[in-house]
Write a structure and sequence with these properties.
This protein is an alpha/beta fold. The protein has ten helices and seven strands.
């Protein structure tokens, strides 16, 4: 797909989601897609490589939370994978200070190349487990937002994300059609981790490609020191 075709689709889909984006930023998304496809031949980053699907299911989907995040905010994207939603959010809103966390070193090398080739500033890549970095003072309770897409059920995800967030900050969970059930199963985790769901909004992706739920959670008090538990425990023994 050439850039003109890419821009036409990106412009159409973004406007359908009430996202306004200029051509220079779309050029960065186009280069991002090219790097993604190039690297995907070497390591498994995504099953989605057809350009139209990349635009909708990676880029537009990532940007669907952009109106939940205030300018000049500090955000951490936990389990970012190929950079979603952190890199699209940074391209779209350059005022953000972004940390990308992933447990697979090969993916972090890819992310660093994307950042370099797109000339993105105020964006950091860290390699490791969510449970480990959340215990480090530099990262713990240091972010306005902690965000994740398709990483774990909500009751587990809360233990990964909430320790990174300042009091009054937000966890943003991007979920599929089982969001309501995950919310029901998260009452204990919400209580223990001093968090409260303040919004659950449904969006429909362009071309009837799926529905998404964006769960916005406010952190009310400091996270108890024992959380997160040691790496692997939140998944084995969810709150």
């Amino acid at each position: 797909m050439n850039f003109d075709e890419f821009f036409k689709l990106f412009d159409e889909y973004s406007k359908s989601m009430e996202i306004i984006i200029n051509e220079d930023k779309v050029k960065k998304f186009y280069l991002y897609m090219q790097i993604l496809i190039e690297w995907n031949e070497k390591i498994n980053l995504t099953a989605i490589t057809e350009p139209k699907e990349v635009i909708i299911k990676h880029f537009i989907d990532s940007l669907s939370v952009s109106n939940k995040i205030k300018d000049n905010s500090k955000i951490i994207d936990v389990g970012t994978g190929a950079g979603f939603p952190g890199i699209p959010l940074k391209i779209y809103n350059d005022t953000l200070n972004v940390t990308l966390l992933d447990s697979l070193n090969k993916r972090t090398l890819f992310l660093k190349e994307v950042i370099e080739r797109l000339n993105l500033k105020d964006i950091e890549v860290i390699h490791g487990r969510a449970e480990d970095y959340a215990k480090i003072d530099k990262y713990r309770e240091n972010y306005d937002y902690a965000i994740s897409r398709a990483v774990a059920p909500l009751n587990i995800l809360l233990e990964y994300l909430s320790p990174y967030v300042k009091i009054g900050g937000n966890v943003i969970a991007m979920k599929g059609s089982n969001a309501e059930e995950e919310i029901k199963n998260s009452s204990n985790a919400l209580k223990i981790l001093r968090c409260q769901i303040i919004e659950n909004s449904k969006i429909n992706l362009p071309e009837d490609t799926g529905e998404r739920y964006i769960i916005l959670i406010e952190k009310k008090e400091k996270t108890p020191k024992m959380y997160p538990r040691n790496a692997g425990t939140p998944k084995k023994k969810p709150l």
